[in-house]
Amino acid sequence: MSAILEVENLQAWYGRTQALHGVSFSMEPRGITTILGANGAGKTTTLRAISAMIRTAGTIRFDGARIDRKATEDIVALGVAHVPQGRGTFMELTVEENLRVGAWARRDRSGVAEDFDRVYRLFPVLLQRRRQLAGTLSGGEQQMLAVGRGLMLRPRLLLLDEPSLGLAPLVVQEIFAILRRINQESGVTILLVEQNARLALALADRAFLIETGRVVMSGASAELTSDDAIRRAYLGY
Amino acid sequence: MNVMRRVLMLLLVGTVGLATALPAGAQTPGVTSTEIKIGNTNPYSGPASAYGTIGKALGAYFKKINDEGGINGRKINYITYDDSYAPPKTVEMVRRLVEQDQVALLFQTLGTPTNSAIHKYMNGKQVPHIFVATGATKWNDPKNFPWTMGWQPNYQIEGRIYAQYVLKNVKDAKVGILYQNDDYGKDYRKGFLDGLGEAAKRVVVLEQTYEVTDPTIDSQIVNLKNSGANVFFNVTIPKFAVQAIKKSHDIGWKPVHLLNNVSSSLGTTLKPAGLEASKGLITALYMKEVTDPQWKNDKAYLDWVAWMKKYYPEGALDDQANAYAYSVAATLVQALKQCGNDLSRQNIMKQAASLKNLELPMLLPGIKINTSATDFAPIEQEQLAKFNGEIWQVFGELIDASKK
Amino acid sequence: MDIFLQQVVSGIATGGIYASLALALVMIYQATDVVNFAQGEMAMFSTYLAWSMLNAGVPYWVTFFATVALAFLLGLVIERLVIRPVESAPILSIVIVTLGLLVIHNSIAGWIWSYIQKPFPSPFPSRPVHMGPIIVGAHDIGEISVTLIVLLLLFAFFRYTPVGLAMRAAAHNPVSSRLSGIRVSRMLMLGWGLAAAFGAVAGMMVAPIVTLEPNMMGGIQIYAFAAATLGGFTSPGGAVLGGIIVGVAENLVGTYVRFIGTELKLTVALAIIIIVLLVRPRGLFGRAVVRRV
Amino acid sequence: MSAPTIAVLVAAVIALVLPFMLSNFRLFQFTQVFIYAIALLGLNMLTGFNGQISLGHGAFFAVGAYTGAIMMDRWNVPYGWTIPVGGLLCLIVGFLFGIPALRLEGLYLALATFALALAVPQILKYFEHWTGGSQGIVLTKPAAPFGLPLSEDQWFYFVTLVVLFVMFVLARNLLSGRIGRALVAIRDNPLAAEAMGVNKALYKSLTFGVSAAYTGVAGALSAVAIAFVAPDSFNILLSISLLTGSVIGGLASISGAIYGALFIQFVPNWAQDISKAAPWAIFGLFLIVFMYVMPYGIAGALRLVWNRLTRPQG
Predict the structure, then answer these.
(1) What is the CATH number that goes with domain B155-285?
(2) Rg of chain B's alpha carbons, rounded to an integer?
(3) A to B contact (≥3 Cβ pairs closer than 8 Å)
(4) Could you say which residues from 293 to 312 on chain D have a Cβ atom under 8 Å away from some Cβ of chain C?
(5) Pairing of the two strands B399-400 and B392-394
(6) CATH homologous superfamily for the domain B2-153+298-381
(7) Is residue B133 predicted with pLDDT exceeding 70?
(8) Nearest to B179 by CA among B168, B169, B167, B187
(9) By CA distance, what is D99's nearest residue in C?
(10) Which ipTM did the prediction report?
């Protein structure tokens, strides 16, 4: 099976500061991969680089075609949904409008209607609150909305940045359960950046570790979970 | 203090008398054997920029004079700066003119607050500050401010003329006044109330004001009508005059409508308001109104048009301000001609104060400019006119405010 | 009583003027999160374009729609050439750029068409309408109707069209919008275009009342700001209602509160707005949203 | 000695030598620059450091100017006293206005202050008895005391320079310490600032007061420098040009006030020297180009250049 995402020697800069120094990895379709690393290691940067939100060098292939020269909007239109850190909620739009924004890049009307149903099925609370302003939702609900917004694209690749940030453990568990369900039901490939390494490794089938803008280790989740260094540094036992 | 000033003036006049005998006043700043430097400020930007055309037209007039050989062989070097009608900026620009550019005199600086800001400075510096472009009364004060002189009939005089008209011609007058809430409006109002004298308290039933920034004055007109007034003294600039005429016509209020001279343009006020609605308006005039068809074949008017086309083609032919500038510039040229070869500041002031029965082409026939050492108000005559649906028809006698 | 009604009606008419420009201000704020100080001057400039067309003999309604289209284009071009380069600058820098646009439009209009006021025709009958003791200008009625139509269009556009939604999204959260595939810069451009078009409508409706001159929108924009502030900058309906409230309140204060009279009319209107803001900090109809950090 | 210190010293020397090199007219212009700089510094504290946008500082300028003018004209108070009194009065007015302003944020605060600036000329005209109405108040320019051999302009230049210096030193001490950090924290992260125990309400309204006081001092100085006050001197354009100056100079920067003041004093003059036909068009172009080249103002651009020069490439 050919890779859905191939990243080779990816470099990225914030202004004049280089943040990635040649990151390479690839992802199989329908898989869940997680990026581990300390704060500032370059996890979020990797996602932003894939979405062309910062200046990059190196090659990125999505489904075999190069996307590293494309604009963010065009990459999204290819089916790459990016749920940013901090959820990117449109506070002043209603829940339903938020979801509709997620479907902006699509042109198939009937499909959009189906996906509304699907998202509301996955997150019933959003259906309850669909006329409410998104700014009035709780943090967990906003995270659900953010994932739902990503799903409205009917993406082939879902980039998730810190979905557990600032949420209560119970809520986090609920969201991660739904992520697994999404992956299993519709076969969306997921690239997950997550502080909580234990949670991430439990969900993902593959993982790699970034330190100061370089990939220092990669492999199946199980392998990394059992690695001593990883356990000490990121799992804390 | 006043005595001192008078003595000073006498001394000045004395020296001037001697000075005339001497050759070219080489020591006067801004004057050489080939040039006279004249300074001016005008609002070319900002909310009052509509007046800026005056400053430009003055320049165009001096260009014509220079093309014709200048004044006694001297070309006019006219320097004008933008003060955007802000007094602090006027102070700065006038100091630039006087101290930096070393002009011989300041001419036609525009606006009441702006001129007030430099009034003391000019008299302290003893630089002629003449024919200022404002209708306030305070410029005619040769005793205290011997270096400052107005030009146009002041607003108070005009207000008094309307008051006399009301007293003579309207029985059981009930007057409503609408005026702009600033010095211009208040001067008109004061002149009018002074003119009414004792009767004012009885006759004036309602006064309303507006701000220049107000979009409309509908509300004020409604109140005036409601007050039962049968005379409407309308002290508004053209934009609001249009609204006032239109609105009172629309709501069926037909008072004796006295419109201030400021807005008497047929082209810019009466036409937009509707000629039908404007019928019966009364105003006081001192100039030929450039959009009034009665002057269509008048030689002076045609000359003015020819000058506009040649020297100020970008200027508007329906803008009375351009005829105003044409006339006031001609007044200065006359004063400078009278100076002969003595262009000392004292003599310039003296000659500006020695205009005798000067008639200018664009002034109404019969209007004469007169000044003297005690009379710093060049134009003091106006004539009432009534709009008959086509033209302003003057009626009655030329009213001369200097002869009370 | 008659005078009261007449003052209310004329206040509504004046309020309609404020409202028409306030709609354009709300439009651009909704679409780009920027308060455009040049909105009024752009409207004035468009109205001059209309005046030139009318003078060349183009029929009124052709001129009307052609002007709206031209203004739309003008808005697009201004956004592309002037605003886009400072798009990522701090918001106050963008505000300064709009001030620059304000003075440029004003100055160039005066330069091209002179500062002398020009009559501008109304498409509505000139005879006033009598409703019992109350008299209303036909143009006033027409002008308010047009404002309401624009309001309706604006409301429908933002509420029911995908583009309207995308524009709101792009204004509130540009990063997230790009990640949803919305071309944010195109939305901003569109926002400028539409606001300019609405402004042109306002200009052509206002000019017959106040006559056309380069400074005609100065005072009106101040009141339009007041209207939008009172109604809430996020609510087109609120802006229209805000305009009418300001118009009516001003008239009634000027008429009935004698010691204030007409001399402090504006001050009182402004004081009312500040008091309203203290009770409802986002205007009467603005949405109160906590922006999370 | 650090580069900024050297720059300050050089500026100080120039400022002291200037009066003996330039004409009275030029000195008058620089006096104006200093006056604007004081006002801009005040506005900068509020808008730049504390994030409260004010479109109405012209109002405080007017209050300061009229306070000074009325004191001098009515009660013959020496002008030296009018400056602190103008500042003090504005401190109180600003503080009082700052309390309700607490409830307003961003745009709504900006427009509420805009309303304040609009109302001021009308109010000045209304209280004609005190303010002279639309005629304004004409003042006399003070001569140098103690028989100093200085012209009026030279003397007042020094007075303004001293006031400017004092105000800048005060501002620097205020802003570089705890208080400054609190202000910035309130601007950037109000919730966190409050969590850290910063009394947000007090700080914000105090900032409003101090900012108004600076502008009031500038107003009082300007009344003396111009020797005239009238409602037309304090229209909305003044407030707008103050905001323009603070943004162009550089928000949240003390030296930005000087650059901004130079801009609002001299750039309109250049604009009209280029074109009398449409001076505003040129000025508008200047504004846009400035913001295009220096989106963070002149101070921001200088900082950038300085960083480029001093930081090693890489």
Answers:
(1) 3.40.50.2300
(2) 21
(3) no
(4) 295-297
(5) unpaired
(6) Response regulator (3.40.50.2300)
(7) yes
(8) B187
(9) C278
(10) 0.84
Look at residue C159 and tell me if it is in a domain: yes
Are D291 and C281 inside 8 Å of each other by CB? Answer: no
Query: pLDDT tens across B63-107, in order?
Result: 999 999 989 889 999 999 999 899 999 999 999 999 999 999 999
Q: Which domain holds residue C173?
A: 2-279
Average pLDDT over residues B205-209: 91
CA distances from C19 to B215, C75, C152, D24 (A): 12, 20, 13, 50
pTM: 0.86
D269/chain C closest Cα distance in angstroms: 15
Question: What is the model's pLDDT at position C146?
Answer: 94
Q: Do C111 and D107 touch (CB under 8 A)?
A: no
Let me know if residue D163 belongs to a domain.
yes
Question: What architecture is domain A1-79+156-165+189-237?
Answer: 3-Layer(aba) Sandwich (3.40)
DSSP state letters, chain D: --HHHHHHHHHHHHHHHGGGTS-HHHHHHHHHHHHHHHHHHHHHIIIIIT----S-HHHHHHHHHHHHHHHHHHH---HHHHHHHHHHHHHHHHHHHHHHHTT--HHHHHHHHHHHHHHHHHHHHH-HHHH-GGG-EE--PPPPSTT-S--HHHHHHHHHHHHHHHHHHHHHHHHHSHHHHHHHHHHH-HHHHHHTT--HHHHHHHHHHHHHHHHHHHHHHHHHHHTEE-GGGGSHHHHHHHHHHHHHH-TT-TTHHHHHHHHHHHHHHHHHHH-SSSHHHHHHHHHHHHHHH-TTHHHHHHHHHHHHHHSPP-
How many C-D residue pairs are in contact by the CB < 8 A criterion?
A: 126
> D200 lies in which domain range?
25-235
Burial code (b: 16+ CB inside 10 Å, e: under 16) for C139-176 equals bbbbbbebbeebbeebeebbeeeeebbbbbbbbbbbeb
Domain contains C59: yes
Per the domain annotation, does C114 fall within a domain?
yes
B49–C115 CB contact, under 8 Å: yes
A192 - beta bridge partners? A34, A160
Q: For residue B180, what is the nearest residue in chain D, using CA coordinates?
A: D134
Residues of chain D neighbouring C97 (CB-CB closer than 8 A):
287-288, 291-292
- What's the CATH code of the domain at C219? 1.10.3470
Q: Is residue C287 part of a domain?
A: no
pLDDT digit string (tens) for C135-172?
888 898 999 999 999 999 988 988 899 999 999 898 88
Separation CA C108–CA D288 (nearest Å): 16
Asked whether the CA dihedral B281, B282, B288, B289 is positive or negative, the reply is negative
Q: How many domains does chain D have?
A: 1
Question: What angle do the packed helices D236-249 and D297-310 form, to 10 degrees?
Answer: 10
CB B44 within 8 A of CB D279: yes
How far does the CA of residue B33 sit from the closest CA of chain C (Å)? Answer: 36
Per residue in A56-105, pLDDT tens? 999 999 988 899 888 999 999 999 999 998 888 898 889 999 999 999 88
Determine how β-strand B392-394 pairs with β-strand B105-107: unpaired
From C115's Cα to the closest Cα of chain B, the distance in A is 5
* Interior angle at CA D283, CA D279 and CA D288, nearest 5: 150
Q: Does D81 touch chain C (CB under 8 A)?
A: no
Q: Boundaries of CATH 3.40.50.2300 in chain B?
A: 2-153+298-381, 155-285
CA distance D61 to D66: 9
Which residues of B fall within a CB distance of 8 Å from D267? none
Contact D228 B44 (CB under 8 A): no
Helix (H, G, I), strand (E, B) or coil at A170: helix
Using an 8 Å Cβ cutoff, are A155 and A79 in contact? Answer: yes
Mean pLDDT of B44-67: 91
